[in-house]
Task: structure prediction
Amino acid sequence: MILAPEEGASAELVNSGGTAPICLVCEHASAFIPASLDGLGLAEADRFSHAVWDIGAGALARRMAERLDAPLVAARLSRLVYDCNRPPEAPDAMPEKSELVEAPGNHDLSPEARAARVSEVYAPFQALLAATLDRFEIPPALVTIHSFSPTWFGVPRELDIGLLHDADDRLAKRLLAVAEPGLRIALNAPYSAADGVTHTLAAHAVPRGLQNVMIEVRSDLIEDEAGVDRIAGALCRMLGAALLPGNGKDAA
Ligand SMILES: [Zn+2]
Result:
C-alpha cells in the first residue's frame, strides 16, 4: 500500500454542500508524499518546489470555492506521486524528472509499482470527481485551477493568467472576453491541449457536454493571502459574467 490508513485518501471533496452550478478541480493542490515513498528521493531544496505541486493553486481553489459556494475536488498527494491530470499511459503521469528537478523515487518503476499508483491515487481521484459531477441537478461548469512558475528554464513568462481549453472552447473564450483590466490574460498559454495538459477536461467535461476551462495563474501572484484574495476575486467576477446559464443547454 502506498498510503497508510492514517494518511487519508488520495483525493478530497471540499465544500461538498456548495450550491453553485460549478465544480472546481485542483489536481496539483498538494505537496504531500506518503511516508512509504520516502520523499521520492527528492533533494531538500526541491521538496516544495513547483515540480512537486502547483504553488498557491490549492489556496486559490479553496478561496474560490468559498466565494462561489462551489464544491472543489482536490488531490491530496503530490503530482510526482501521480499527476491526476494525466492518463496512466502518459509519460509524465509519474515523471522521473520535471524541468530541472529529479525524482529518483520514480526512476525505473516496475509495472506493478505503476499499477499501484494508478489504482491507489489516480482511480480514486477520478471516481470522486465523477461522483461529484453526478450529484449536480443543473449540469455544472467544470473549472480546473492550476499555477505555473514565473520562469521556465530561466526565462520569465510575460503572462498573469492562461485560459486553456480542450475540444470545447466556449467558456475559455467567454472568460477572455470579460478579462479584468490590469491582468495579462491569454488563451492557451503558457501551455495548451497540444501539451497533453487537458486530461481532466477531456475525460470529464467534454463527454458530458459541460462548459469547462483550465485556469493557469502565475504562482508569484498567489503566494500570499492578499494575492490569493485578489486573483480569486478577479476570477470569480469573470466566471460570474462568462458562465452560460443552465450550462448553455437551455439557451435560445
Ligand atoms: Zn497544474
In short: The mean pLDDT is 95. The domain at 5-243 is CATH 3.40.630.40 (Aminopeptidase). Residues 28, 54, 146 surround zinc ion (CB under 6 Å).
